[in-house]
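Letters spell out the chain; the tokens describe the backbone. To illustrate:

===
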Amino acid sequence: MDCQIYGVLFLLTLASALPENPTANASNSAAQINSNSVLVALLDSYYTELSELVEKALLLQTLEEAVAKHNITIFAPRNEALERDLDPEFKRFLLDPGNLKSLQNLLLFHMIPARIESNHWPADANNKPVHHTSLCREKIPLSAKNGDKIVSTAKVIKSDDIIRPDGIIHGIERLLIPKSVQQDFNVRRSLRTTSAVLPEVAPEVDPRTHRLKKPAPPVPAGGAPALPIFDAMAPGPSLAPAPAPGPGGPHHHFDGESQVKDFIQTLLHYGGYNELADILVNLTSLATEMGRLVSEGYVLTVLAPNDEAMAKLTTDQLSEPGAPEQIMYYHLIPEYQTEESMYNSVRRFGKVNYDTLRLPHKVVAEEADGSVKFGQGEGSAYLFDPDIYSDGRISVQGIDGVLFPAEESTAAPKPAPAAKIVSKPRRGKLLEVTCKMLVAVGQDSYFSSCH
């Protein structure tokens, strides 16, 4: 960030605070601050990291009032101490908006409401530090050792670096951390402030009813449901949705019914997906079942065929009992996927098999022509309208075809060809009698039919 901008913005702030009457009382705090102020010098200096923290901590008004009352001394850490040498976890703690007070106290600990120049420093021979009260009301010791000036635990590397009529800035080698801020950081990092979760065994599911044998323990809002989504589904496509077997009983964490209504309304307003909305709402009870699943904490990705693709379905494909539900189940993925996440997956892994609610069939996705293609061969479909709807629980991805699972190959093996048997031609009864007579007289050799 450009250091010059800070100085200009600060001057504009001070100019707007000046009274309209130029003869106002000299005790007015804003009137005493000018472009030669130590605060302007700090914001316009090469201590850019400290300047940015002062801006983020919203301390300009507090420092204006302090400078108006008395001189201040600022101990400014070098940029490297705040940029590279600071513990990343501690830096995240300081920049957390919830820890603004800790950040303010840390910065005010670097400022003393008195003018302390290098010649006012305690002598090296004294060996006793001199304590001053900082602007955060904590004591900060000044001492000298082996000819070096020491502030708390940091060595002064640039004495009297910036001198102004209302204050002075010394450069120090590292950041100073007051005890109160260190304690706040330790408390946050302490195990006493984290809630431990007792380990519990996985819930038992009755394989006959697909229901929990014992009530599931309550889970926190947003937690993973106790049952897999396949066990939480309705027992059959032609039946009404089953009672909610998921966590929390009737106390739903999400309003799945409203979310499903919202995504269906989005399909209708988007245009080109009226047939799918009609199947979900009127021809089947899938909209109700999807709402119940989302209410119980499950997430869904809908591969939505457009109207042009749905128009290609034949009457035979939709007339069989449960056929619309089975077709739609194959277009429901029990994961939350967006166009970006699916495209990144197929780019990285080539082909990706996604589970569907039509067990045990999976839908295959792969990259094709810079997009995502689902299915294989002539029955494939491309991602046509990405992210029609995505609210963190339901994701709707428009495709240009209706998908069907690959049928298992059940072709019977071909029978082996029968061996060709060459049989001698059969002779009639009259010919047979004639041959016997010719044999008797010794004339059979003249007739080949008698051999």
Summary: The mean pLDDT is 77. The longest helix spans residues 3-17.
